[in-house]
Amino acid sequence: MSSLYSNSIFWIDTDKVKPNPYQPRRDFDETRLQNLADSIKQYGVLQPLTVSRVEVEKNDGGITTEYELIAGERRLRAAKLAQVSQVPVIIRVGDTSMMKLELAIIENLQREDLNSVDRARAFSRLVEEFKFTHNEIAKKIGRSREYVSNTLRILSLSEEILSALSEGKITEGHTRPILMLVDHPEEQMVLFKEILYKKITVREAERLARKIAYDRVRKKEFMPDPEITELEEEFQDKLGTRVHIDRKELGGQIKIDFFSIEDLRTILDSINKSTSEKKPEEMLQNFINKNNSGQKNEEDSSGTPASFPLAGEDDRTKNEIKEDDSKLYDISNFSI
Q: How far is the CA of 245 from the CAs of 19, 58, 334, in angstroms?
């Protein structure tokens, strides 16, 4: 019987296939799912689902047969959307719960459209629940050990950043400069918000992260002038934005962040007459609030929700992306 199950395709009722409890994928693109459902309506389910047979005891003491999905979650969801009564399946036998979990994770990891956050969480489950080494995971998915190790690092980011990454508000490439500031959460969040709301590119974000890192290295290697540090903080308190004083042998430069011409006028007014203290990120927060307000007005006028703006551009070339692939989150790329 097991040989028959392993080599045959069966047609079973769609409602008897239960979702995979080990499914590592959390996000399913509704548009793509509907497109697949439309295709299934026209051509049917072309690739069989993989399931295991489960006997469930009913309330009256009887036994009923159900099927637990191992691989094919998108096809199952789309088939239900298409209201298909039966789907083709291959029934696996003899799998333990741990084997089902491994199969489900590996099947999803081999898909190109799995987002980077779900991929990192899947790697983490293989490490924690199966005690896989990074090298073993790499062999199973045809990647390098460095790729696995570096991908796992994104789980150190906050839930807010991980959600933005999952939803496509920032790109996978943007996480590298963000991760450089993982030990400095306040500066990390400022950089994240600049990426999110100013739509800066990956290379621009890298330049900002390198500058922050360089400034920190400079301050560690060369004992900072307490008076300069105090002046930087006073400027930031008065202007409500990030200020950097770059002191040279003779004189120096003051660098002030701004986001619009209006901000420049605000800075000038603040220099002329301000006596109140502001937070260093206040100007960025005002920019974000204004951006959100504009989206709300767009929603009110059209009667439909305004979609979140697309992520800032990943302006690396195809060769640069390929070169970065195995070391996407490697902090050594930012050595000074």
A: 58, 73, 22
**Residue 112: closest CA among 72, 145, 141, 80:** 141
Strands 63-71 and 243-247: unpaired
Give the active site residues.
73
* Overall pTM > 0.85: no
Q: Which tens digits make up the pLDDT trace of 63-100?
A: 878 888 888 888 888 999 999 999 999 888 777 777 77
> Given the structure tokens 């011409």, which residue do they identify?
261
Distance (Å, rounded) from C-alpha 122 to C-alpha 142?
Answer: 15
Element (H, E) at 119: helix 116-130
- Separation CA 97–CA 104 (nearest Å): 11
Q: Pull the structure tokens for residue 200.
A: 């800066």
Kindly list the domain boundaries of the chain, sorted by start residue: 2-95, 157-334
Q: CB–CB of 129/99 below 8 Å?
A: no
Fold entry, domain 2-95: 3.90.1530
**Res 122 pLDDT > 70:** yes
- Type of residue numbered 33: L
Inter-residue contact 45 to 75 (CB < 8 Å): yes
Token code pair at residue 89: 């399946």
CA angle 221, 226, 229 (to 5 degrees): 85
